[in-house]
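User: quick one, fold this
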Amino acid sequence: RVEEVIDLLALDQLRHRSLSELSAGEQQRVAIGSALTAQPRVLVLDEPTSALDPSAAEEVLAAIVRLVHDLGVTVLLAEHRLERVIQYADAVALVRGDGSVEYGPPAATLATSPVAPPIIALGRLAGWRPLPLSIRDARRVAAPLREQLREYSAGTRVVSARPRPIALRAAALSVQYGRVAAVDGVNLNLRGGELTALMGRNGSGKSSILWALQGSGTRSGGTVRLADGAEEGIDPASLAPAEAIRRIVLVPHSPSDLLYLDSVAAECSEADHATGATPGTTSALLERLWPGVPGVQHPRDLSEGQRLALVLAIQLAGSPGIVLLDEPTRGLDYAAKRRLGTVLAELTASGTAVLLSSHDVEFVASTANRVVVLADGEIITDGPAHAVLTATPGVSPQVSRILRPLDFLTVDEVREALRELEAPS
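Assistant:
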């Protein structure tokens, strides 16, 4: 059974690795494998692809589909990233805010659902009936829309003539864990007012880079310097905690690691005190990110998305110049992602440099100015988000794949293009 599961989930290269050495995504694949080894008749999965890169997610979902089709296993899967899973679903149970449940065929249920992936939102906008659930089906019905949009040049970005100031420089950065080179000689500059997305397969070194830049993580070689007017700058690792939280902060992929008090209100109050912020600053940020979180609630009793929102509010309370985020959309639904995107846009507009590591292609498409792609600890692509995401199939959002070769990333871009085309000249 173990051998079958290892082959099913492509875990052979991890066979002799310690669990503590695995990335979050690799650990998730192993956890799924451990459940499958028991050969259950019913498999219940809570966001099984949340920590996986697009390729690994496809592998896991393909394996789950084989279990359903070949072995008759019943799978109940809860997932916020519907764009990844909806094409495989035989039925959808839509749980509304009041606790009521609507159950039925995916296309019919999602036609009026407040929660919908980009492919469904694009289908609604274009008036496709029935709504397509896969990229292949969407491309088949999208020909008239592509023809209509050919007149519009999408993807045009207004580039400021004045270059943004550099907030952080990393040169020849290396991170070594035993014999494993997690980061190998990376050169990376972060600029104020720019949101940079760090993408790549699980285990490519994204989290290691974030921790090395922040100063708390392992750094085997190279230099990291904050821009402070001096030629050499300051190494974040040399900053005292009270100063670091005002200069450069990191929200890890396990945000609960930063929570240690017994209530949400206490965490918010402590963050205000530690950063010197006006009392109420952190709780106001939390309300924007996730409205209605009770102050008396224990942080450990919050949902994963609520804990992430709380930690993000805590880290932003000091208005740091550099914000590092490791998988910030895990556990977030589409509405919460939009709120997070709004906050990040305001941060960059104020001059903050944001670097986020993410497998969430759709979120990156809607928020990032720049995309850096890693492979085996090295940078293989670094460029404007629009250029990278449309040219790289492995990280292309749904709209780009449906409308290719046209240059669109999001449904909002398509909506704006149609509005301009329909406007009287």
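User: anything notable?
Assistant: The first helix runs from residue 2 to 8.
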